Amino acid sequence: MESDLHQIIHSSQPLTLEHVRYFLYQLLRGLKYIHSANVLHRDLKPSNLLVNENCELKIGDFGMARGLGADPRQAKAFLTEYVATRWYRAPELLLSLHRYTRAIDMWSVGCIFAEMLGRRQLFPGRNYVHQLQLIMAVLGTPPAGVMAAIGAERVRAYVQSLPPRPPVPWESLFGAAEPAALALLGRMLRFDPRERVGVAEALRHPFLAKYHDPEDEPECVPAFDFAFDRQALTKEEIKAAIVAEIADFHARRDGIRRQIALAPSGGAGGGVPGGGGGLANGGVNVANVGSVSMANANINVASVNMGNAGITVANTNTNVTNINVNVAN
């Protein structure tokens, strides 16, 4: 991918409402799959959305991602609060509500949506308190239900000490946007996560009707099972799991080696088209091969023609010891 959405938003190149619509649709389509797998991304922001010259968008950087259990009570369980870059962080994280769901990703999507519309960050807070102040300056005072759910007494006392503020109409911030866009934005940026639009409903919104296709918006089946993540393993069980993982890796590696050893050599016109062991325009890409040890190997290569193979080997760690290689013709 040649660029990311942050670079595009903050460049001088045109960004029409159709661009915004297409980028938002792709983001929601990808997020639908992620959420259906019981995964929260937790760090959606423009710089983590990769874009190519055809305006195709991909979601990247899953370093902060976290799995959810299938049990709704597990899905709402306490998770680490320090997630998401501050400017795209949902109010429930700032207000220490302790329990959050997929709605935190939808808040981030709303912030990205607004940034595309205005070509500037909507809530560029300098710190925690300033971030909260910027959000309330637009959304107004949090509703009573959110106030009551604030877990930290100091945070609740601070919010309650502020004078009541009404919400700012989205039209006054993004007057050039069509009403359907602002209606969807308003559904995403809600103080109460229970009132925030879900990803499937957002895809069905009239603003995205041009691209919405239920048959082309896949879900992860089956969803990921993170039950193992809730198991309290003993030291010996962890050791056994590591040994089992190593054994599985070696078994798969040895199976691949056997397949390679049994593959046709390509001689006498067999194997690769063209005969004589020719490799033309192969376009083979080998990445993350791992650690390969070749000791005391005698390799004889005869009459091999490799033209335009386009073979790329990346991220390998190869130890070659005492190899006698004879290349003839």
UniProtKB/TrEMBL annotation:
All copies of domain Protein kinase, residue ranges: 1-208
Xref: InterPro entries: Kinase-like_dom_sf, MAPK, Prot_kinase_dom, Ser/Thr_kinase_AS
Cofactor(s) recorded in Swiss-Prot or TrEMBL: Mg(2+)
GO molecular function: ATP binding; protein serine/threonine kinase activity
Keywords, ordered alphabetically: ATP-binding, Kinase, Nucleotide-binding, Serine/threonine-protein kinase, Transferase
UniProt protein name: Mitogen-activated protein kinase 7-like
Taxonomic placement: Eukaryota, Metazoa, Chordata, Craniata, Vertebrata
